From TrEMBL:
It comes from the Eukaryota. The lineage of its organism: Eukaryota, Viridiplantae, Streptophyta, Embryophyta, Tracheophyta. One of its GO terms (cellular component) is nucleus. PROSITE patterns: MRG. Keywords: Chromatin regulator, Nucleus, Transcription, Transcription regulation. This is MRG domain-containing protein. Gene3D superfamilies: MRG domain.
């Protein structure tokens, strides 16, 4: 991973801590199971981020608003389908099941906030 860190211009101080996802173990994280979950819902959520991106892109390029909107809808759809099967750790799936009720889409619950 050090080679990857160097090729991505990661500062030297972080080269020693770079590790592949499969190398991560609980003792490296210094957290206890169930104690590291983030509070949901997050703001901004995925749909908010995509909407803001569409508005930003259409300020200078009005002609591409429709295509950008379609792409962002597709991105949200893909996120909604991929999150429960590919993007969550096993320990996060119970929280997902609790957060996604009443046909609320994951892209309305998950996002960039902390």
């Amino acid at each position: 991973m050090t080679q990857v860190a160097k090729s991505c211009n990661v500062p030297f101080e972080f080269h020693g801590v770079a590790m592949d996802g499969c190398e991560v173990q609980l003792e490296h994280l210094r957290v206890q199971p169930g104690k590291a979950l983030i509070k949901l819902p997050l703001t901004p959520n995925i749909q908010d981020i995509c909407t803001k991106y569409c508005k930003y892109r259409s300020q200078n390029y009005v002609m591409i608003f429709e295509s950008t909107t379609e792409i962002m809808k597709g991105l949200c759809f893909y996120f909604d389908k991929a999150l429960p099967v590919m993007l969550l750790y096993k320990s996060e799936r119970h929280q997902y099941a609790d957060a996604i009720r009443d046909n609320v889409s994951p892209s309305m619950v998950y996002g960039a906030g902390r």
